[in-house]
Amino acid sequence: MVFAAASLTDVFTQIAADLEAEGGPRVTVSFAGSSTLSAQIIEGAPADVFASASLVQMEEVMRARPEAGAPVVFATNGLVIVVERGNPLGIRDVADLADDDVTVAVADAQVPVGAYSAAMLAAAGVALEPVTLEFDVRGVLTKVELGEVDAGVVYATDASSSDGVDSIAVPDEFDQQAEYPIVALSDDDADAQAFISYVLSDAGRVRLDEFGFGAP
Amino acid sequence: MLVPALLAIAFFVLPIVGLASRVPWSDLRRLVSDDASREALGLSLITSLTATVIATLFGLPLAWLLARVQFPGRRLVRSICTLSMVLPPVVAGVALLAALGRRGVVGARLDAWFGLALPFSTPAVVIAQVFVAMPFLVLTVESAIVATDPTVEEAGRTLGASPFYLFSRVTLPSVRPAIVAGMVLTWARALGEFGATITFAGNFPGTTRTLPIATYLALESDIDQALLMSLVLVAVSMAVLISMSDRWTGVVGGRR
Known about the structure:
The complex is a heterodimer.
Chain A: E1 2-5, H1 9-21, E2 29-32, H2 34-42, E3 49-51, H3 55-64, E4 72-77, E5 79-84, E6 104-107, H4 112-124, E7 132-134, H5 137-145, E8 151-155, H6 156-161, E9 165-169, E10 178-184, H7 190-200, H8 202-210
Helix pairs in contact in A: 2-3
Chain B: H1 2-22, H2 28-32, H3 35-68, H4 74-86, H5 89-100, H6 107-114, H7 122-147, H8 150-158, H9 163-174, H10 176-191, H11 195-200, H12 211-221, H13 223-255
Helix pairs in contact in B: 1-13, 3-7, 3-10, 3-12, 4-7, 7-10, 8-9, 10-13, 12-13
């Protein structure tokens, strides 16, 4: 069982299918916010592999499971602003999110993307009053896709996976680089090692590129 | 017979024992005085009690309608009005967004005409709670009304009492225990509401972050706090169940 950050949903689903198509083991992947997953693993959930969207949650898991191997960073990600298709409110930059007429969803600060979003807004000097703090990045994206909020802050990869939204780049000087570490939680699990090797392989890199994840 | 019964009891007792054994009692003072959880508890109490009052005001007439008035499609109406009780709460939340969200059938008009946006507001929390909890009141009271003797109401009618007088002075008093039980069930369901709330109302401290949502979040950041909040919910629920069975329904039922 692979526990993977919600932002890896599309690419890991594809990689798991690739691996099985090439005669590798059949892998089940459970996606959720990295903080949800780390709490579940610490409480004893039967995860063989953990792929986190942040080093913070990985460190928590490492403290609780010292017998695990060493985590390897396999991908990076950045932030973008997503708005309704066509950008009816004409949102151009981070500062526009603070407008009173603009309703914004971000992720809760204890989820990696929420922590990155808060750091990005602080770097841009924007004081924001979001209407909701979602449990994971997909929650933010869904609220924008449904038109329930005007804008949201998500990973670049989530924005490009959605047809229902337009994205606005976050300037490099404010952007936060998300690093994705992966680890096998037990040494002697061949299926877990096979999955991690595949993610780190050239074929895995091609898929990660395709879904917009940067190289470490 | 006894063995499965005892196993069943153990099955229900064990999680509570587990919870109690893991709560860091020595840290209780710090945890109880934590502003975030008090805020969540306060919001939960206000919204769930408001939801119970609203569900009662609208649910009692609906229960009476379903119990006493013959009309075509009554079974269908009953099914629709109690559907939210069996729906997965997240589905209930999606349905509420589709109806009352900014792009919803009704919500889009509220937004256009009155500039009113319900999602992500405290009223949205109450709406989600009423939606999933009101069926408990309706079903409890309806079956109680069905079980009462309709000849008493008919006697009242022949003596010239108005329908509202009969409803409020004859029908309702005779089913008071069921109303109390229905209100308690409704309140308990509203207090525990999670899925529809997070979907329809979102999560923001002080506005929409109720105790169950705060508990879920705390599980990831401060597990001691989560355990304490869980214990608060257990204690409140236990208190309600005990007082309901011993005092209210018992005495009122005995008087009947």
